[in-house]
Every structure is written in structure tokens, then in C-alpha cells.
Amino acid sequence: MSPSPEEIFAAAGVRGFLHARRLGSEASVEVGADTPVVLASVVKVPLALEFARQVAAGLLDPADRVHATAADRLGGTGSAGFADDVSYSLRDAALLALSVSDNTAADLLFDRVGVENVRSLLAELGLSRTSIIGAPRDVLRTIMADKAAGRPLRALDPSRTSSTTPRDMTRLLAAIWADPGPGARVRGWMAAQVSWHRLTAGFPPEVAVAGKTGTMPGIRNEIGIATYPDGAAYAVAVFTVGGAETLRRPDIDRAIGDAARAAVDQLRS
């Protein structure tokens, strides 16, 4: 018998929280699906959806450009780690935010979209367990302040930072996949994600996976959709806490994919 998601999390030495559902069905698999968890870079998914909705409503021009200066580049992937200033369009900022988890691109997009508008989107979709304290730069500032003061990091505490639940995130994914307009744009950006070491690693190559990771010290997440050749699609949200604080833990990354696959296998059986 294949291991359950709970057994997979235990073997990796982490606490895991998971919700998986087949799109168009009420069937689901749950492991602490209503437990508050740290959102981390998964916040970029509702950000991108609100951006796409504002473009569709004519409120934003996707070709408008933003300029990433030294003050905006706080380190990380994409333009966040560039040595020099760069400009790109809003739609490319969305692509960078989802494909390579570019924090600077997400910050600049939040500036145009508005944090309050993303919060309003969450309320409209009924994601009552999801809260956003601000853009990635705002979370980073809490980390810097807490480290300077020698106190526990608020960024690792779901009650004090941007947070959600696995169930809320599969509800968000279902809304995106049901939307032929703005949702389709977000699906394309998520499908372009370059990180294949978590959800995607758990599924065979014939299964298409579109996702978004989130990472903090001791926290590793991914939400996404796995679409099988028979057309069945499954929304999966996996959040883990524990393990070494080093960002490189391929065993935990793989556990995320294996737990997601185990949950989907249960639904398919």
C-alpha cells in the first residue's frame, strides 16, 4: 500500500497541511485543511488575479512600464537580484512574479494594483481565512526589524503575517480555473513557473502541473493544479512547517510532491 500524505510528512520530519479536490466535484482529501499557515510567496497568485481583473476592466494597461531601482531590489530571484536598474511592463511583472517568484516585480505590481483591492478580491471569493499584511517588501521589513530586535520572526507566525489555509487556496485555484477571462491569464503565468521540484516532482510527465511555491526559513509551500490526460483536474495546496531552516531541503520539497500525488491518487481511486 502506498504511504498516505500524513506518513509522507512524518517521514520528512515536518508538519504538513494539505487540501486536494477534484475540480467540478465536492470530493476532497484533507490533512489539517483549515489550519492557518504562512502564505509566503503564494500571495503572488491572488495579486496576479486581481491585476488580470483590473486589466480586463480597463483599469490598468498591461503594457504600462514599471522601473525597478536599487531601492526596490531587496535581493532574490529575477529583477530582485539584479545589479542594475531595469524596466518592464506590468504584464511582465506578473509573469516574473509567478514564474520565478520575483519579489521586486510583485512589489511594483502591488503598488499599481493596490493591497486593499487584493483584499477585496479575497473577500469577494469567500476566502475569509486568508489575510494579507502587504507586499513582499512589507514582510521582509518585519523580518529585518525582528532580527534587529532579537525577537521571534512575525513572518513565520500565521497570526502575525500574511496567512491562509489549504482549503482557502484550493478554493482560489478553483475560481481561477473556472474563469475563461482573467483566470486564463493567471493559469498561463502559473504554468510558466520554473520550479519543478515540489508539486511537479510528484507527478508523471504526462500530467500537466501549474503551480506557485512559497518559501520562508523552515516553511515550504506550493499550490497548483494537476491536469491528467483524461481531462480530470485536481487543485492541491500543500504547506509544510519544520525541517532545517536552510532553504535547500530537497527531501522536504519532494515530500510536498509525493503528498500531493498521494492525495490525488486517493481521489482518482
UniProtKB/TrEMBL annotation:
Residues in Beta-lactamase class A catalytic domain copies: 19-240
GO terms, molecular function: beta-lactamase activity
Short name of any one Pfam family annotated for the protein: Beta-lactamase2
GO BP terms: beta-lactam antibiotic catabolic process; response to antibiotic
InterPro entries: Beta-lactam/transpept-like (IPR012338), Beta-lactam_cat (IPR045155), Beta-lactam_class-A (IPR000871)
PANTHER family given in the database record: BETA-LACTAMASE, BETA-LACTAMASE-TYPE TRANSPEPTIDASE FOLD CONTAINING PROTEIN
Protein name: Beta-lactamase class A
